[in-house]
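Q: My labmate handed me this sequence with no annotations at all. I'd like to see what the chain might look like in three dimensions before we decide whether it's worth expressing. Could you predict it?
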Amino acid sequence: MKSGSGKRDKKGKRGLIIEAAVQEFSSKGYHDTRMEQIAIRAGIGKGTIYEYFTSKLQLFQAMMEESLQAYYTTLSEEDLHQLPVEERLKFLFEAHTRFCLEHKELTRIIFFDGGPPVNELREWAMAMAADKLKRMMGILQEGVDRGEIRDLDIRVMALVVNHSMGAFWYPLVMEGWDKEAELLAQNYIDMIMHGIKKP
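A: Here is what I predict for the chain of 199 residues:
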């Protein structure tokens, strides 16, 4: 009983540290954030952080990984494979928009322009971006195979969709853009699927 309670306590403290790190890193940036500040916000001693993370860099990477996992969970599409590609893309965009609006601190960390603030994470970030691109290429390839979308360069299409979708985080989070997720998704999909040229 005591052992199990200790495990829950440790898990709870780690979660508090990650949550405090999100707040501090998103408001102050990587270089200006201090472990002491994170400890104070988490309501623990500074030494406790080092029981879970050996350095600020390791804490930052763990926070990024958990933030991305939360993002991908929001965009989970396990039950969407049978839907037309247009409906899948609409779902992904709407989920992306809702995530940005409901998790603004995480959004600033995940999507802030320029990539990770430390060189040690560049390779890791590139791997994450490659995985995201691969996911989108798979969705679009299914659309091509089903005859739902044009047979164009899959990589180019995936880059256009990913980058255009990702661009919406800034006005939503940094400028306080007040847009209904469903309506915004419909407008976005209309432009992606039909272009901006007047028929």
